[in-house]
UniProtKB/TrEMBL annotation:
Domain Histidine kinase intervals: 196-414
Organism, scientific name: Parabacteroides faecis
Pfam families in the cross-refs: HATPase_c, HisKA
Protein name in the entry: histidine kinase
Gene Ontology molecular-function annotations: kinase activity
Keywords, in A-Z order: ATP-binding, Kinase, Nucleotide-binding, Phosphoprotein, Transferase, Two-component regulatory system
Keyword ATP-binding in annotation: yes
InterPro entries reported in the protein's UniProt record: GAF, GAF-like_dom_sf, HATPase_C_sf, HATPase_dom, His_kinase_dom, HisK_dim/P_dom, HisK_dim/P_sf, Sig_transdc_His_kin-like_C
Superkingdom of origin organism: Bacteria
Higher taxonomy: Bacteria, Pseudomonadati, Bacteroidota, Bacteroidia, Bacteroidales
Catalysed reaction, written as an equation: ATP + protein L-histidine = ADP + protein N-phospho-L-histidine
EC number: 2.7.13.3
Major enzyme class: transferase
C-alpha cells in the first residue's frame, strides 16, 4: 500500500519534535565540523534540498570561508561584500529567485558565487550585531517553492544554529590557546634536553670519526674492509647531521633581519625545487590577496622554513594513492591586526597529499617525531622555532586521505 494517496503531499515534519531533537544535539556537540554536519542534516530533514553550504568568519583573515565540502573549488566571501552588507542591514534571509534586482546589485564575482553554489535561500548567521557566517541553501529537490511553514521552520532552526556555532567556535579558540601554551612549554623543555644530549654525543663522536678515518688507511688494499670503513664513516656523518639538527632546534642562530618580500622569497624557493615538482607531476598554484607582501625577517631562515614545508608536501603527494590530482596551493593574504601599527601576514601551503592522522597533529612539531620511513623528525621542529623567533605562529590542519594545510602567521608593519 502506498504511503500517500495520489497528489497528496507528505506531512510537514513535527515542529516541536524537530526543535526538541535539535536543541538536545546542540547541548552535546562542541566539535564545530560535527555541528555543521548536524545542521545540514536537520535542514534536509525539514525539506530535501539540492545543496547546503555553510560559511563561517575566519578571524585571522576577516573572510567567510566555506566549511563543508563542495563539488567545485571552495569560495570565500569578505566582510565588505555587498551580499554580507545586505544580510547585515536587513537581518533576514534572501530568496534568490524572488529578488533578481537585489542579486543584480551585487558585483559580478558575488553573483558568480551565488550561481556556483546553486543558492535559492541565503540566511545570515548573526550574533551581537555581527554577521559571523552565512548559509546557502539550494532549490528543493522536487522543484517546488519553499512554503511559508518551511521558511519559518528553517529560520527558527538557523537562529538556534547561530548560537550553537558561536559556542563551538569559542570553545575551539580556547582549546587552541591551551594547546599552544602547552606546546610552547613542552618544546622549551625538549630544547634544553636536546642541547645537553647533543653536547654529550658530539664530543665522543668527533673522536670516533677521527679514529675511523685514521684506521681506514690500513684497509685500502682490501676492498671489502675499505667498503666497511666507508660505511662506518657514512653512518657517523649521519649521526653528526642529526646532532647538528638538534643543536639548530635547541640553540638556534640569531635572526639577521632585513626587509623581505615574501612573494619573491617563495618564488625563489620554488625555483630550487622546480625539477622535483616536475618529476612528481605536481602543479603549483601561487595566489596572493594583498599587494603588500614585505616585512622584516631573516631571509635565509624563512627560506629554510618554506623549503622544508614544500618538500614535505611533495613527499606526502608522491605517496598519495587516492588517485586525485597532485596540487600545492600557496597563498598570501592579510591577517588580523595585532595592534594599531602591525598585523599578521598569513602564508598558507595546502597540498593534496595523504594527510596526517588527527592523533599525530599535536606531535608534528616535536623533535624526532616523523611519519616518514626515512626522516629525523627535526624539520618541522626547527621551522616552529624559526617562526616563533619571528614572533609569528605556525599551525597544521589535516584530513587523512585529502591533504594538509600549514598556515604561517608573520607580523607585518602597516
Amino acid at each position: 500500500m502506498p504511503l500517500f494517496r495520489k497528489n497528496e503531499r507528505p506531512a510537514q515534519p513535527n515542529l516541536e519534535q524537530l526543535l526538541s531533537e535539535f536543541n538536545q544535539s546542540l547541548t552535546l556537540i562542541v566539535d564545530k565540523q560535527l555541528l555543521i554536519g548536524n545542521i545540514a542534516a536537520k535542514v534536509k530533514q525539514i525539506c530535501p534540498v539540492e545543496s547546503i553550504y555553510i560559511f563561517l568568519l575566519d578571524e585571522n583573515t576577516g573572510k567567510y570561508k566555506q566549511q563543508n565540502e563542495a563539488k567545485n573549488k571552495p569560495v570565500t566571501l569578505t566582510k565588505r561584500s555587498r551580499l554580507t552588507s545586505w544580510l547585515s542591514v536587513n537581518e533576514k534571509h534572501l530568496t534568490v529567485s524572488e529578488h533578481p534586482d537585489i542579486i543584480a546589485y551585487f558585483p559580478p564575482e558575488e553573483q558568480e558565487i551565488v550561481r556556483q553554489l546553486g543558492a535559492e535561500l541565503i540566511f545570515p548567521l548573526k550574533v551581537m550585531n555581527q554577521i559571523n557566517g552565512t548559509i546557502f541553501i539550494g532549490k528543493k529537490t522536487d522543484g517546488t517553492v519553499f512554503t511559508p511553514q518551511e521558511l519559518k521552520l528553517l529560520s527558527i532552526l538557523i537562529n538556534q544554529a547561530t548560537f550553537a556555532i558561536e559556542h563551538a567556535s569559542l570553545y575551539e579558540i580556547q582549546t587552541e590557546r591551551l594547546k599552544k601554551m602547552y606546546r610552547t612549554d613542552r618544546l622549551a623543555t625538549l630544547g634544553e634536553l636536546a642541547a645537553g644530549a647533543a653536547h654529550e654525543i658530539r664530543n665522543p663522536l668527533t673522536a670516533i670519526r677521527s679514529t675511523i678515518q685514521y684506521l681506514s688507511k690500513d684497509f685500502n688494499a682490501d676492498p671489502t674492509k675499505k667498503e666497511m670503513m666507508d660505511e662506518l664513516i657514512s653512518e657517523v656523518e649521519r649521526i653528526n647531521k642529526i646532532v647538528q639538527g638538534l643543536l639548530s632546534f635547541a640553540r638556534p642562530s640569531e635572526l639577521n633581519t632585513s626587509e623581505v618580500n615574501i612573494e619573491q622569497l617563495i618564488n625563489q624557493t620554488l625555483l630550487l625545487v622546480t625539477n622535483t615538482l616536475r618529476k612528481q607531476d605536481i602543479e603549483v598554484e601561487f595566489e596572493y590577496f594583498t599587494d603588500n607582501t614585505t616585512l622584516q625577517a631573516d631571509t635565509e631562515q624563512l627560506k629554510q622554513v618554506f623549503l622544508n614545508i614544500i618538500l614535505n608536501a611533495v613527499e606526502a603527494m608522491s605517496k598519495n594513492s587516492s588517485g586525485h590530482s597532485r596540487t600545492l596551493i600557496i597563498s598570501i593574504e592579510k591577517g588580523a591586526p595585532i595592534n594599531t601599527h602591525s598585523r599578521y601576514l598569513i602564508v598558507s601551503f595546502e597540498d593534496t597529499g595523504k594527510g596526517i592522522e588527527q592523533k599525530d597533529i599535536e606531535n608534528v612539531f616535536n623533535p624526532f617525531f616523523t611519519t616518514k620511513e626515512e626522516g629525523t623528525g627535526l624539520g618541522l621542529a626547527i621551522c616552529y622555532g624559526i617562526v616563533k623567533r619571528h614572533e609569528g605562529e605556525i599551525e597544521v590542519k589535516s584530513t587523512p586521505g585529502k591533504g594538509t594545510c600549514i598556515n604561517i602567521k608573520l607580523p607585518q608593519r602597516i
